[in-house]
Amino acid sequence: MTRFIALISGKGGVGKTTSVINIGQALSKLGKKTILLDANLTTPNLASHLGFINPPATLNHFLRREKELHEIIYQHPSGLKLIPTSTSYEELQKTHPQQLTEIFEHLDDLTDLVLVDTPSGLEEGLSQVLKNTDEVLIVVSPDLSSVMDALKSLQLALENNNLVPGIILNMTNKGKHELKNEEIEKMLHCPIIGKIK
Questions:
Q1: What tens digit of pLDDT does each residue of 86-129 get?
Q2: Three-class SS of residue 21?
Q3: Which of 24, 44, 152, 183 has its CA 20 to 30 A from that of 166?
Q4: pTM beyond 0.85, yes or no
Q5: Does residue 173 carry a pLDDT above 80?
Q6: What is the pLDDT of residue 128?
Q7: Which stretch of DSSP H or E encloses residue 135?
Q8: Element (H, E) at 3
Q9: Which candidate, 171, 197, 167, places its Cα nearest to that of 183?
Q10: How wide is the angle at C-alpha 127 spanned by C-alphas 74 and 150, nearest 5°?
């Protein structure tokens, strides 16, 4: 049975996409069959981070039944497999977040793990993702607005019965205005399980 793990945040720019890629790479090196899914229909970045610019077949095409699942799974030279979402505004207009459940149904039992890059904030796409995932990792930077916004996304994840192993703290520079680790853990009621500078 496939484990679906979503990486969530309350705001953009905190490192969700980079974390998805790095965790995916680490899991692949451990021998876990892993697919990276860009479920951020509004502002997808996963494919471009991995050097895939304007892939010809995307999640959008699959959700509209224009492409088969095998046609939208790409393999990066590193060995990572990914499912990209179109960056086109026209494609966004033709794709509805309610359709996202279908990709999860098709990926179940196909691989060991699916790491899901999610939209920021509380948009409809995030809600649809969290209805279909098993657990979430919260990605935040050590500033008050990032943590406060993440709290709302975390509450939505809990409402959808996702397990929450912990927080990935990104962009830590030990600046004097950064929140302390204990403060972040207390605000989100979760342990920090990874720190990235």
A1: 999 998 899 888 889 999 999 999 999 999 999 988 888 899 99
A2: helix
A3: 44
A4: yes
A5: no
A6: 93
A7: strand 135-140
A8: strand 3-8
A9: 167
A10: 95
